Amino acid sequence: MGVEVEEEEMDPEIEPETPATTKPGPLTSAPPPRHAHANVSRATSHKTNLRHIQTSVDLHESIIALPLDSLDERQVSLERGHKEMRQEVRRGGHCR
Predict the structure, then answer these.
(1) Domain membership flag for residue 6
(2) In the chain, how many domains are there?
(3) Region (Disordered): which ranges (predicted)?
(4) What is the pTM of this model?
């Protein structure tokens, strides 16, 4: 009643399979718990970012609200030049 098991001959050119390395089970060291000060720090950072954004928005709004007279003379002449070029193109002429 014995069961015979055939043994396969190993080909010398084929390397035997190496068992796959397995990763160890659960991590041995858990990440540190989150503390309240981390959340406070994060909230403070968000408030600081919001203040920077608001400051930037306020600055842009104040620049937009400037009257034409307070702009630098170079900016005024640049705007006039652009206006003249657009009018010239509308008339069918070429830009200088």
Answers:
(1) no
(2) 1
(3) 1-48
(4) 0.29
